[in-house]
Amino acid sequence: MAPSILREPICKAHSSSSNTSSITLAPLPKKNGVEFAVYLYGAHVTSWKNEHGGEMLFVSSKAIFKPPTAIRGGIPICFPQFSNLGPLEQHGFARNKHWTVEKDPPPLPSESTAFIDLILKPSEDDFKIWPHRYEFRLRVTLGPDGELLLTSRIRNINTDGKPFTFTFAYRNYLSVSDIGEIRIEGLETLHYLDNLQNREQFTEQGAITFEEEVDKTYLGTPRKIAIIDHEKKMTFVIRKDGLPDAVVWNPWDKKAKAMADFGDDEYKRMLCVEADAVEKGVTLKPGEEWKGKQKLCVVPSSYCSGQLDPQKVLHGS
Ligand code: TA6
Prior knowledge:
The protein is built from 3 helices and 17 strands. By secondary structure, the chain is mostly beta strands. The N and C termini lie far apart (53 Å).
């Protein structure tokens, strides 16, 4: 009998049962009302709530919380392959694996308030799919102002002297009021590959707004990207390090209807803005470690009244 799916936060991290169909939520105690929840399955953050209990991330009402399907929403982690640009399954296997809680994490930076350290190491079966040995550590941290930090450390521990190359993405499904009210600042004038036009390269002309399906990979992006929700009068700010690219994706109506784990109208209330290393990829020699960090925060944006200049948000501290 398939074990029950734990949907409500539990008081402590549980290691998932040996049965691969069980999934366990490993949330953390609230801090000033802010909280997040993460599944050991895929090390998948599925919730990030602000001090008023408002949910900042989108998870589809039709999401399937059962392996081998990846949870539709939250922050899926793509490793060692982004998209279907390679021999592995779409977006790699890290989001379909059971991670474990790292028992003896390193000391926590003082400014953090709550955190969890998760680790993924390849099984012998995994080795057959991707013949490399690695340690992938993910730290999810709640900052003092309720910001959500994800830090990935991937180390090559091959004993055969072989380097490996991977592509990586934090695929942030942001919860928005109405996709028609959204504007992205910080990607203007950048080159992007249009994944809906055979990855042909174009140049972004201005701030990005949404009237149709979008699937674009922006190359060499700045550290900060601002996503302004005019209706909510708030701005998501993504700050990233070690992640030079960004993907912007909204499936719009036709693709929404074609996805079994996504509501037909849900494209109106979500937007994927991703922090990625997908164009050039990352190559590690044995013993080398890569770090990819993103910080998500939300600032009140009186942008529509002209008081908040997103350029200040982007180029400020
Ligand atoms: O990140 C954008 C993207 O690569 C889109 O092309 C679309 O395929 C999306 O990811 C969803 O992928 P998934 O495997 O989660 O259904």
